[in-house]
Structures are given as structure tokens and as C-alpha cells.
């Protein structure tokens, strides 16, 4: 009998090991590559999310963005030496090693080209912020994935943090959010570089349906005002160089402000990512993600026109 029990335990352990998804990372030029790997691979961590393990990576990197070329080798070496991640020469090879992919490259301009071989390999795909550097690239990623039947989603971690999960109400009349909004000169949609976080938080609390955007821009901040199709108004303040995150929600009989110390770690996002890889059902609709990019595209055009109201394309 002890031998039978031992055999059953070994069989269970083998099945559990096989059930664990093999994950691949594209782009080691962001701290997310390290943070996500630790949460997924370190089963002693308090934030550990089970179900998958990062086993392979493609380094990537952009030579004209300082925050990319100054970190890509350092983070790659940490993944290799501390987490024993295998590095591969190209994305096609990566896809042959893994069950699902985390596209982490900090440069949104390369996301379309990096997503193409993943879509061709039909691997479920999480694309970290920003989804792309232009509305056109974002729509092309969505088109290619839809044609191939490949599930994908993109999201800020703030969507699943304390503000995003405790301040969403069916009777919300309007929302103001704020957060860091430093700009990056190579990204055509300059808000996509970092202001994507408070913008996504706005959409988390407001939902879709924005029709028109007005943007006022100064060296210290941007204020973007969106008019929704049901008369609601949503506002984002992007702070420079950095600042905390927050939100105010306007309801018919009360006004609520977020906790200044609201939690917004990566663990809740990784929980959603692993659910997505298992079920292939995105927790954020692709349509909402594309409207967020249409919102930023309209804001870019409003800025170019001196702050005039611009309708979403």
C-alpha cells in the first residue's frame, strides 16, 4: 500500500508539472519582465501566481530609447542567471518553446512586428502597455489576431488594482483620474507612453462610448476631457514628470475620492493574465482597448489643433 500511495503521488506531481504553462517573454527592456517572472516563477513569494512559468525570452531592445538600451542587457542577465530563463535568437524560436507569450517590450513602435510571429504561431498573447504606438498599429494587431483566431489583450495593472475594482458603479455620472504622464519623443501618440495608465483607469470606471476629446497641454501637465455619448464627462490629468495615481467618481448623490495609498501592484494583473492563458477569454474586450487608442489619437489631434474638440475616429 505505501508503494501504491507513493506511485499515485508521483503521478499527480507529473500531471501537475505538465499542466503548468510554459511562458515566453518578448522584450527584457522593462522592469515588468523581472517583476512578472518573480511573481510567476517564485512559489515562495507572497505575491506568487501559480499556473505558469517563464521559461524562455527574446531580448529585443530599442537603440534610440534610453530607458530601453540602458536596461535591456541588465534585465536579460538577471532573467538568465537568477531565473534560469533560456534566451532565443528570434520570436519564431520562442514560440516553439512556449504555450503563451508576454510581449513586454517597452517600445510600443515594435509591438506590431513582434506580435506578427506570435499570431502566426497561434499563441495566446498578452501585450503590455502600450499596445502600440499608433491607432493604426493597434487596429492592425487586432485585425491580424481576429483573422487568425488568436486571443489577446492589453491592460494597465491599474485596471485590476484597488481603484479599478472598488470605484466602478453603474450610476457613475463622471470621473476624473490622474497619474504620471511623462512623454517619449519617438511615440506618435505621446500619451501612450505613460499616461495610458490614468487613461485606462478612466475607461475602467467609465466604460466605452466616448465621442469627443479636448486636450490642453503645457510642459508640466496635460488635461484631457472626453465627452461620452450619454452626456457624461471624463477627465484625465497627466502629471510631469511623475506623480501619484488617483480618481474622483461623481454619482447622483455622492462624490467619492480614491484612497491616496490605494494598492496597485502587479499580482492582480498576473492573476487575470493566467486566467486568460487558461481560458483564452480576455478580461478586457479588444473593442475597449481600441477605443482607448482612439481616445489618445483624438487627444493627439486636439493638441496639434491648439486644444480644439476632436471626434474619435
Short characterization:
By secondary structure, this protein is an alpha/beta fold. It contains 11 helices and 13 strands.
Structural commentary:
The chain folds into two domains: 2-153, Rossmann fold, CATH 3.40.50.720; 158-311, Dihydrodipicolinate Reductase, domain 2, CATH 3.30.360. It is 40% helix and 21% strand. The chain contains eleven helices and 13 strands. The chain has helices at 2-19, 31-41, 66-69, 72-83, 91-97, 111-120, 135-148, 162-166, 196-206, 267-279, 286-304; strands at residues 21-26, 52-58, 86-87, 100-103, 125-127, 152-153, 174-180, 210-217, 221-228, 233-239, 246-251, 254-257, 310-311. The strands form two sheets. The protein has a seven-stranded mixed β-sheet with strand order 12-11-7-10-9-8-13, covered by helices on one side.
How are the SSEs ordered, and which strands pair?
Blueprint: H1 2-19, E1 21-26, H2 31-41, E2 52-58, H3 66-69, H4 72-83, E3 86-87, H5 91-97, E4 100-103, H6 111-120, E5 125-127, H7 135-148, E6 152-153, H8 162-166, E7 174-180, H9 196-206, E8 210-217, E9 221-228, E10 233-239, E11 246-251, E12 254-257, H10 267-279, H11 286-304, E13 310-311
Parallel strand pairs: 1-2, 1-4, 2-3, 4-5, 5-6, 7-10
Antiparallel strand pairs: 7-11, 8-9, 8-13, 9-10, 11-12
Helix pairs in contact: 2-4, 6-7, 7-11, 9-11
